[in-house]
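Reminder to self: tokens first, then the designed residues, so the page reads top to bottom the way the pipeline ran.
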């Protein structure tokens, strides 16, 4: 959800970013968005063909790759649309895999009688927070400059990836410790 908050508003502001910051036009924006969609399709096909087993670490890796693409997009020089297209392609590749892996991960790990509730709450939270995120991102873009927001959001995203990585390691450590404790108490 937090990664979505950091990425989606920037796509809502992309037309402004392309036109006013980079001096581009409708064709430049269409090219960047087309490359993004092509990356999403390639990412989804990769998951489909590889018969990928969704794991939390793979989801976090894909989120990290998406933020790398967003960082490249934000660092692109004015009127250098090749770099923006490259960043957009990387974001598309990652986002094309993230949604599939998250939904598959949840379907595997949540009992079927609870999936409807979990998915409805998850999608409600993700979709309801986006208008607020767009408003905040746009407002902060007015204060700090939109180019700076395209750099700050990926940096915040890298912090999120570090938090998720450390959190998952702690969770795995705790799970292993609980398993060892159960084995020790059973053998005693």
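Designed residues (188 positions):
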């Amino acid at each position: 959800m937090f990664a979505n908050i950091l990425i989606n508003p920037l796509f809502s502001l992309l037309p402004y970013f392309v036109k006013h910051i980079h001096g581009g036009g409708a064709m430049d924006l269409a090219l960047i968005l087309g490359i993004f969609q092509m990356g999403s399709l390639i990412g989804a096909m990769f998951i489909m063909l590889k018969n990928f087993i969704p794991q939390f670490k793979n989801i976090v890796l894909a989120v990290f790759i998406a933020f790398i693409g967003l960082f490249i997009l934000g660092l692109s020089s004015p009127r250098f649309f090749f770099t923006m297209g490259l960043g957009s392609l990387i974001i598309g590749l990652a986002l094309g895999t993230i949604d599939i892996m998250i939904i598959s991960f949840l379907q595997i790990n949540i009992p079927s009688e609870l999936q409807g509730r979990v998915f409805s709450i998850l999608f409600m939270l993700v979709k309801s927070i986006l208008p607020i995120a767009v408003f905040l991102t746009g407002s902060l873009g007015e204060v700090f400059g939109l180019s700076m927001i395209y750099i700050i959001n990926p940096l915040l995203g890298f912090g999120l990836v570090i938090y998720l990585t450390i959190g998952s390691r702690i969770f795995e450590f705790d799970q292993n410790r609980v398993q060892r404790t159960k084995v020790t108490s059973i053998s005693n």
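The chain has a mean pLDDT of 85.
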